[in-house]
Specification:
By secondary structure, the protein is of the alpha+beta class. The chain has helices at 18-21, 23-30, 32-41, 43-64, 76-90, 100-116, 126-137, 140-161, 168-253, 259-280, 301-310, 328-348, 378-382, 388-399; strands spanning 314-320, 354-361, 365-372, 403-408, 413-420. It has a five-stranded mixed beta sheet with strand order 1-2-3-5-4, covered by helices on one side. Helix 12 links the parallel strand 1 and strand 2. The longest helix is centred in the middle third of the chain and has 86 residues, at 168-253. The protein is elongated. Mean pLDDT is 76; it is low at 1-7, 286-292 and 378-387.
Amino acid sequence: MITSEPVRVAPTPPEPDPFLEHPVARWLLSRQGQLQSLDRRRPWLLDTVLALLVLLFTLGQVITGGGEHRDTALEPRVIAIRLAAAVLLLVPLWWRRRAPVAAFAAVAVILLAQWAAGIWVATGVVVLIMLHGVAARCSMRTLAVVAGVTTAQLTFAIYVLAPVGEHRLAALLLMLGTSSAGIAAGLAGRTFRAYRDAQDGWTAWLEAQRDQQAQLAAAAERARVAREMHDLVGHHLAIVIGLAQGSAQLAINRQESTAEPLGLIAETGRTALDDLRRVVGVLRDDTQNPELTPQPGMADMERMLAGVRAAGLTVTYRTAGDLHGLAPGLQLAVFRIVQEALTNTLKHAGPHAIAEVTVTADQNQVRVRASDNGRTTTRRSSSPAGGHGIVGIRERAALYGGSVIAGPGSGGWTVEVVMNQGSQL
């Protein structure tokens, strides 16, 4: 049996728009933002330019008369009257933004009066601008009324006032179609502004959500760090209380004078421990009982790495310096930083990734470096500080006056943390 696969035809690229290829159109598109800003600051300037353009467009017809008067020179008085009529139609352009319905009504009355007086000038194109303003800024009910008035006025002018012969219906349809173009342009601009405002509002909402999620992530991580520090500090306070009580009892047995101060130290330690549990202990999650599990340190690093390797990630671990001699809180910070970095690698590096972890310590600083050769996904590269893992790393490093550098490395992702041994903020 012979089968044939369907022939796939590559789509034809769209032809360039001749209008967009025009130099004037390209210039307007490149200056669109500047022109909009100028229009918001000085709206009268655009209205003046628009009025001058309309006047220049119709000036020849105003002076020569056009049509049947094309071959005969008009009297200066007639030219002055026609020019005054044309300028009078342009006056409502300057308040069409503040009061579009009033501007349309003024143009409609002026046009009707001119047509009744037998003055027909092409400046009547201003009515299209007015219809555009009403469609762009007023309600649909107002637009319907204005469209009805325009239809009635044009019908009356063509069938009663205009010197039109046999083709009155064609002239009426042509005028109504031209007027509908002004309304359609206004509605299109109104729809575009509504879409742009909705898009701006959606963008602002997304940015607010992103900032809120970042704040919640930072707050949750701080609460987690505070719970762990509560355990550490509580542990040390319990040791201090036990030593003070034992020393006080020994001083009593020996009848030494230090028994009372040592008892006060033990009592103060118990008060501090109670206050610590009340203030920081409220951050605990009631669904867990972290007091039953000791906080991890450098001795637990291999156990954690074994779990990561079992999840499918190849990890190389190197150390330098006396890491087990670090303070318990610093050991906890190093453990969590490595854990968060490897968790980030498991999530985003992809299959068959290899990670390298290096922890070095000297007398002053502890350096942690975790890198992988996995793919740098869009999420990792575009927002390195957007995930909870990086937030946690920064919060823990800040406890020890440290700095964090996280970003794309050579073929993967790298996290480098430097913390000070002698300072805990």
